[in-house]
Design brief:
- This protein is α/β, with parallel strands linked by helices and about 400 residues long.
- The chain folds into 3 domains: about 110 residues, de novo design (two linked rop proteins) (Up-down Bundle); about 210 residues, 3-Layer(aba) Sandwich (Rossmann fold); about 60 residues, no CATH class.
- The chain contains 16 helices and 8 strands.
- Strands 1-2-4-3-5-6-7-8 form an 8-stranded mixed beta sheet, with helices on both faces.
- Helix 6 links the parallel strand 3 and strand 4.
- The radius of gyration is 21 Å and the shape is globular.
Length: about 400
Amino acid sequence: METQSNTIIFEDTSYYFEFIRVLAKALEHGSDIGECLETAWRIRNADPNVIPPARSWCKEWKTLADRVMKIGNDCRARSHRISARDAYLRSCEYYRSADFYLHDTPKDPKIITLWEKMHTAFLAAMELADISFEEIEIPYEGTNLPGYFWKLKRDSAPAPTLILNAGFDGSAEELYLEYVCDALRRGYHCLVFEGPGQGVVIRKQGLPFRYDWEHVITPVVDYAVSRPDVDREKIVLMGLSMGGYFVPRAASFEHRLAACIANGGVFDIFGNNARIAGCSRSELLEFVTTRQDEYNRMAYEMCTKNTQIHWGTTHGMWVFGVKSPAEFALAQEPCTLQNCAHLIRCPTLVLDVEGEQFFAGQSQQLYDALTCEKTFISFSKEEGARLHCQEGARLLGNQRIFDWIDETLAQK
């Protein structure tokens, strides 16, 4: 019988996962362990009758972010370039985390102000980093999608390029700390963007998620191939979290990709919801369609009992542009790869973790549906990589991901 706790500081698994998410950024100087531990203890010990935990979460991470931002400003004023850069990177991540549990009130002005502070801190860090960096805009259906492009410091010959696609709640800035630094070290340009439902696009443009993500990725690939520094034959697309649905969906129709990575795989979002509810896909669809009021009542009741359900439901309603849990569920119904996964042509890597807490079994379903050259990698609890997207085990995760990319592109 296992007696060791699976969490640290927080018994609530949602707070625990988000805490590990911040703590893991220490690998690239995007957090500091002592700062994170002290902040987590203050959140845990906050009086729930005075400051509810989610509001305490925002308060404490913002307090830390503001303090570290001041350190960055002071160091820059005294010409301590590296110290300032590192402080700005930490501040950026802390502002991102402060925003996380606010989305049950989409009109809360802190959602915009914290994101702007995060962006300001990130740009300040990039200005002081010894890398080639651009803010970019990608034309998309009468508007633009924001993004970043990091270029290798070498001659102008075209180089392999990794495009990173976040998921349900990630940011372009966060992906820098998680994957971009390793991509650059391994000889890849890196393009990161935010699409509908993500980051600043949902916050300032109000564009919600769409199931037909190929209409998002094709303009991104159009932009990539327009650059003379991108090797058109070696473009790799990787999706994280719900990006593990978006990227295979797009790769089913966008065939200019040299490789595709789903970390982890998401085959059928609505079907996954049905599994969690303990019913079939068709049964859940009938229930949500014909008994919306009852479904909404049940969903809101569950939100009062579980942090993850509350956050996932309220955040999902916001980023899918709907007004109720039932509408949110129906908006996810078309998000399935059932009728298109077999259309993927490029080599595809599907990742899974033993303790997958959001999309259990989905990676295997995606892998089984693929007819292209394919690879499946599963991470185990014993390796310390049991959490969603190998959170907390980034060195191991990136080692296997980038080794696969290296080997796959070597065949081109």
